Amino acid sequence: MLRNQYWSGHTPNIDKLVENGSVFRKYYTGAPSTVMSNMCMFTGLYAHESELSRYVLSGIHYQGETLWTKAEAKGYECHIIWDEAWHSVFKMEERYYCYGENTKIHNLKEIRQGVGAHYLHGDSLNEMTVRRNMFTKQSKMK
To answer: How far apart are CA 52 and CA 82, in angstroms?
Structure first.
């Protein structure tokens, strides 16, 4: 089970996804950048088959089938939970152009918890609880 070092609560919905889904604990790629390796993972293409020839802000949306477009076509809502410590969400939206049109991108900083570094921001406990609850037992799985 994957656990965030700052998370003390339980996330049964996410835990169920992990138990019944794919978890990439070790992922190796021949792609020279994160952008290209994610493109490979989400499209099934090899790095040399993608239109990404270098690490640039392209703003071009990939037109083929991807993990996201296939899931959306089957009626799933797709969400990406992203940590801005790696790249800002803005950079992700500009560079990672292989997600579905309706995919929602969430910044990990928006999912606040009453522990760890997030607690130091001074947000009210009620606000943190409301945001946390969308990923815990209080939310309902479809």
So the answer is: 21
Q: Could you give the CA distance from residue 41 to residue 102 in angstroms, rounded to a whole number?
A: 19
Q: CA–CA distance from 49 to each of 21, 24, 41 (Å)?
A: 27, 22, 12
From the number of C-beta atoms within 10 Å of its C-beta (0-12, 13-18, 19+), residue 22 rates as exposed
* Residues of the chain with confidence (pLDDT) below 70: 1-10, 27, 51-61, 83-100, 110-142
Closest CA to 100 of 43, 54, 22, 48: 43
pTM (whole model) above 0.85:
no
User: Tokens 């640039």, residue?
Assistant: 56
- Compute φ and ψ for 88, nearest 5 degrees: -70, 155
Task: Provide the Cα torsion 56, 58, 64, 66; round to 10°.
Answer: 60
CB 108 within 8 A of CB 83: yes
